Structures are given as structure tokens and as C-alpha cells.
């Protein structure tokens, strides 16, 4: 960055000030436009605004006249206006380039990806973790989250963007605290209903795509399974893609085990909810009752109905595993089917 203003940026400035001192004439529209152009050129050259203003003020030293100060004020104001306008244009161009880069990165479009990543401070040969926040209301301050993360971890370590209505955060795997900080800011700035999915650390440009897809997949699984946690990690949900890999076998299991529940009085849903609560409570009937707002006796009664209808008991370890897998499959596959 240039530390001093090049002399040619203020080429006519001395002449304008001298004319004001001699005749009292202040700069017209054309002169002020030239000052604005000079301010914009200074911004594009990387000249600090302070250096530009100091140079403009220094040129007025020793000049007397009632019109010098008003002329100087107008000149400096026009310089600053041109400078700020150029900075705003540059910021918008950078923002658009950043959005385009994030889209290309998360979609795996590899054209000049590594070169463009370096511009944003990312070293794609390293491992990265992607966190995705979904279920966000429109009142949250997404830009503030990015500014706060960058202020703490640096722009070369954090990339935040909005994609498909979700807030995406890409950070090096060596900075796990950044994911926690991202979650903290989401919690602080958005109304309840949000959830953060976290992908596993993955290496390289393709790794960013993989971690992003895992994070989105974790959000989808959490919604389909009705999971309670606000933060879900793909690493904790690896069993579910395995369960879904053989869809035909899973559908057969769900149908074979749970179909008898469809014909019971009151429908299948209360019984499925009871099974889910019992499994989530590690078989503790009292804890499951508290989850559902029921009595322990009601839980016991419902589990006995499940046993009579399906032939599977949640109290038997092997049968409990079969029941739990069938219930998970039912949620994953939106059972019952038409």
C-alpha cells in the first residue's frame, strides 16, 4: 500500500487554492468532479485516505484569503467522496466475487479454484470443516456474524456465505473453536428453530464439498428423525447412510416389524413416539414419560401393546435393536407409505 499521495493526484490543487486566495473564486462543478476522480484514483492505488487529506491540507499552508478555507473544505470533501465511492464499488465487486467463489467451491467447480482461494486466504491443500446453519428466520444479522468471526480468527481463516437459504461457514480443521463460535453467534442472533449441521474434516477442494454435503445431510437427517439437539455432527450420524444403503431391505424390515401398528386403536404414531422416547432415554421409562408428558404406567402399557402387536419386546436386547432400527427406518423413509 502506498504511504504517500502521488503528486499527480493533486496536480491542480495548488492552482485552485492560489486562485481562491487571489480572487476569492471557489471551485466550480468541473473542478470538484476532478477532485472526486482524484479521490477514486487514490483509493484504487491503495493510497491511505489520511495521506491524501494530509497532502491536500499541506498545500494550503501559507495561503491567506477569505475563500481559501471554504475552497479547501470543498476540495477535501470531494476527495473523500470520490475515495469512499471507489471503496464501495471495490467492496461490492469483492462481495460478488466472494459469492461466486463460494458457489463454485461448494459445487465443486474447479476452474482456477486454488488460485481464487488464495485471494480469500484459503489454502485448499489443508483440511477444512464446513458448518451449515438452517431454519434461520429473516431477522438475524448474517453479515455481523461474518464480521465477528473474521475479527477473532482473521479473514484468511473464515469464509461465511449464504447458500440456498442457509448460512455456511468454512474453517480450517485446525480451528475447531471457530465452529463453536459460529454456533454461538447463530444462537445469539436467530430465533429458536435454527439448527447447525457440522461436516467431518476433509482435505482439499473436493473435501470442502464433501464436508458441506455431510453438514447439509446431517440437517436433513435431524429433521426427518425429529432429533432434539440444535447442533448435529455428521460423524455422529454415520450409521444412517449405512441403514439407507439397501433401501429395499430397510423397507422390508419396516413393513415386517411395524405394519401391525397401523391397525391399532389410536393409530401408530403414539406407539412410535413412545418407542423413540424409550430408546432416547436408554430404556428408562420414567425419563421417557417425562419426555412425552405421560405417566410411567402409560409408557409401560404402550410398550406392552407394541410387544403384543409386533412380537418384539423393547426389553430384549436383540429385539430392541430390531425395533429401534425399524423405527429409525420408518422416520427416514416417511413410513407409512400410500
UniProtKB/TrEMBL annotation:
Residues 271-327 form the PucR C-terminal helix-turn-helix domain. Pfam families: GGDEF_2, HTH_30. InterPro entries: CdaR-like_regulators, CdaR_GGDEF, PucR_C-HTH_dom, PucR_C-HTH_sf. Residues 111-221 form the CdaR GGDEF-like domain. It comes from the Bacteria. PANTHER family: CARBOHYDRATE DIACID REGULATOR, DNA-BINDING TRANSCRIPTIONAL ACTIVATOR ADER. Belongs to the CdaR family. This is PucR family transcriptional regulator.
Amino acid at each position: 500500500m502506498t504511504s504517500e499521495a502521488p503528486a499527480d493526484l493533486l496536480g491542480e490543487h495548488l492552482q485552485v487554492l492560489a486562485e481562491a486566495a487571489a480572487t476569492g473564486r471557489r471551485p466550480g462543478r468541473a473542478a470538484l468532479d476532478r477532485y472526486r476522480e482524484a479521490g477514486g484514483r487514490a483509493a484504487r492505488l491503495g493510497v491511505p485516505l489520511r495521506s491524501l487529506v494530509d497532502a491536500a491540507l499541506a498545500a494550503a499552508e501559507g495561503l491567506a484569503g477569505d475563500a481559501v478555507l471554504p475552497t479547501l473544505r470543498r476540495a477535501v470533501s470531494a476527495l473523500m467522496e470520490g475515495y469512499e465511492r471507489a471503496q464501495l464499488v471495490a467492496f461490492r465487486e469483492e462481495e460478488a466475487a466472494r459469492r461466486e467463489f463460494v458457489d463454485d467451491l461448494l459445487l465443486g467447480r474447479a476452474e482456477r479454484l486454488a488460485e481464487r482461494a488464495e485471494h480469500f486466504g484459503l489454502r485448499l491443500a489443508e483440511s477444512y470443516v464446513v458448518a451449515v446453519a438452517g431454519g434461520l428466520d429473516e431477522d438475524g444479522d448474517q453479515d455481523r456474524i461474518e464480521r465477528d468471526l473474521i475479527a477473532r480468527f482473521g479473514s484468511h481463516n473464515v469464509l461465511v456465505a449464504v447458500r440456498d437459504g442457509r448460512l455456511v461457514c468454512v474453517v480450517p480443521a485446525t480451528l475447531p473453536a471457530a465452529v463453536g463460535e459460529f454456533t454461538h453467534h447463530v444462537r445469539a442472533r436467530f430465533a429458536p428453530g435454527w439448527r447447525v449441521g457440522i461436516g467431518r474434516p476433509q482435505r482439499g477442494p473436493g473435501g470442502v464439498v464433501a464436508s458441506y454435503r455431510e453438514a447439509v445431510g446431517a440437517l436433513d437427517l435431524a429433521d426427518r428423525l425429529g432429533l432434539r439437539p440444535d447442533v448435529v455432527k455428521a460423524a455422529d450420524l454415520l450409521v444412517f447412510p449405512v441403514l439407507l444403503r439397501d433401501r429395499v431391505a430397510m423397507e422390508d424390515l419396516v413393513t415386517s416389524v411395524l405394519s401391525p401398528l397401523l391397525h391399532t386403536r389410536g393409530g401408530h404414531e403414539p406407539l412410535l413416539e413412545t418407542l423413540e422416547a424409550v430408546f432416547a432415554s436408554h430404556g428408562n421409562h420414567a425419563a421417557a414419560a417425562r419426555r412425552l408428558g405421560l405417566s410411567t404406567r402409560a409408557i409401560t402399557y404402550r410398550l406392552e401393546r407394541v410387544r403384543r402387536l409386533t412380537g418384539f419386546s423393547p426389553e430384549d436386547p436383540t429385539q430392541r435393536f430390531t425395533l429401534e432400527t425399524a423405527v429409525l427406518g420408518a422416520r427416514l423413509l416417511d413410513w407409512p407409505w400410500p
